[in-house]
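Field reference: sequence -> structure
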Amino acid sequence: MAQIFYDKDADLALIRSKKVAIVGYGSQGHAHALNLKESGVDVTVALPTGSKSRAKAEAAGLRVTTPAEAAKSCDVIMILAPDTSQAKIYDEHLAPHLGAGKTLMFAHGFNIRYGTIKPPASVDVSMIAPKSPGHRVRETYQAGGGVPALLAIHQDASGQAQALALSYAAGIGSTRAGVLVTTFTEETETDLFGEQAVLCGGVSELVKAGFKTLTDAGYQPEIAYFECMHELKLIVDLMYRGGLNYMRYSVSDTAEWGDYVSGPRVVNDQTRAEMKKILTEIQDGTFAKGWIGENASGRAKFEAIRAAEQKQPIEEVGAKLRAMMPFLDPVTIKPGD
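Structure field:
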């Protein structure tokens, strides 16, 4: 049975007694920094001198300094920069200022799991990973709630690593929803697998394949978009609230029967074999090695795929349809963004 902690298990005074540096001010960074500040924590945002985010952080009333200065003056350093830039930031700016009594924190285990960051044994290394995009971490906190998070301890030099991590989780609002104990390895491998096989890779390919099947058969692209993309949110919202059972309870019997008899034909033994292969490549480091190498070489393949995907027919049709539905608060990503 999973171990889950809530507000009653956390002592907010612990994180309030520390100086906390938030390295990065993107989706997660801005949410953590602002939530902690409003929870009474002494927060500093760490950004390079030329960062465009400095003005945003300062406008929000946050203290901003360089990563090196933050690591030198703060007790807790939470790294919320992109996975592929963390090792460079750590080596060049943070590592020289880490010593006994410091705590290094992460919201994703990638760089610890694959050894691109190797903290000294004298520091605590922990993780609080909200299971939500940063804007939801911020919105739910402001509304008096929170999003669930994962907690992991990689090093406990002080003997207080878990207590401090829980206090940090309380500061961003996550103990209001529940904090589940895991490990850096489990969080990293399951997170990458979920993204690749289901949430991003799997869903994207399923939507594109469904759209192409219908349009290749002569159906209107607009109809295909609604059936394979637009209505997906309605189904996911039902699952989010009550699982597969509630979704099946809420749709028609015809849709439920189609789920049972056709779903296994789409996700079949071959699909499951590929899922196992994807998981193996995550576990043995093949995926991480390839992704790190792609970034080190300039990301040419990544940028080419991104550019091609942004011009997919379903994206062009979808942009036009969403523009006709302002109640959706539509967002347009232009090629090159």
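Note: The mean pLDDT is 96.
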